[in-house]
Amino acid sequence: MAESELWAALLGDFPPHQVPFIEGEGGADGQPRRLALVLAYEGTRFAGWQLQPGKRTVQEEVEKALGTLCDQAVRVEASGRTDAGVHALGQVASFSTTSRLSLERMRRGLASLLPPDVNLRRLGAVPAGFHARFACLAKTYRYFLWPGASAPLFLKRRLWALRQGLDPQALAAALAQVVGERDLAAFASRLGVVEEGSTVRRVMAAELDASGPVWRVRITGSGFLRHVVRNLVGACVQVGMGRLKPQAVGEMLAAGRRLYAGPKAPAGGLYLSRVYYRELS
């Protein structure tokens, strides 16, 4: 059931990763090493992944810890940015360093220096050309909903609690509209459209698990523009409430703009679940 996925994640039972780690410490003597991290983080107190002046970000915390350990400035490249309040179960980041500190000592050091809301799942050497973003072939996001929530006090930053119930069949039908080669401009923020160039992405799966009190939306695609998943979930919730027909999602995709007003799903329900570096079967 969907809530079992949520509890598993909260307890540290994270999805598998596909990072192509190699044996050994990486890098020839005197040459920079190419390393990668698999991270989970609780996004509530972060202004997102990317560095922002005067704001606390995940990238800043990771680079600060690595800089201390490597005794040099380190720039970390993530598979993609997450926004303020969004969580990650399997974010991947890569970096280069000339430091010869052993990977074991680096792992122990990161475990000590990273803040409690960032968890190092894995650190290791990767091939010299590996780049967490440019090598990424697809990503899976999960979004957790609690329709008819009675007392969401302790979970309000982990999911979207809704007072009223939702129609699961209508919501699932709305999600199905996004599968395939799709122009996602309708659900992207204006900033995301400007930054990303082409707004066409391949969405391999968009499905709902409504088998328990907590529901889970899972969407996998070749990439996502800024705020697409949250805006899509927001529109699907409007469908589930009966305020829109399921085909409204397809109409907006075809039009390339938001034809129907509605709220964006809150950041706290969204989790970057998995990053793929091999083609999906």
Describe the structure.
With 281 residues, the protein is of the alpha+beta class. The protein folds into two domains: 124 residues, Pseudouridine synthase I, catalytic domain, N-terminal subdomain (Alpha-Beta Plaits), CATH 3.30.70; 139 residues, Alpha-Beta Plaits, CATH 3.30.70.660. It is 25% helix and 25% strand. It is built from seven helices and ten strands. Strands 1, 2, 3, 4, 5, 6, 7, 8, 9 and 10 form a ten-stranded mixed sheet that branches. Helix 2 crosses helix 3 and helix 4 packs antiparallel against helix 6. The longest helix is centred in the N-terminal third of the chain and has 13 residues. The protein starts with a helix and ends in a 5-residue tail after the last strand. The relative contact order is 0.19.
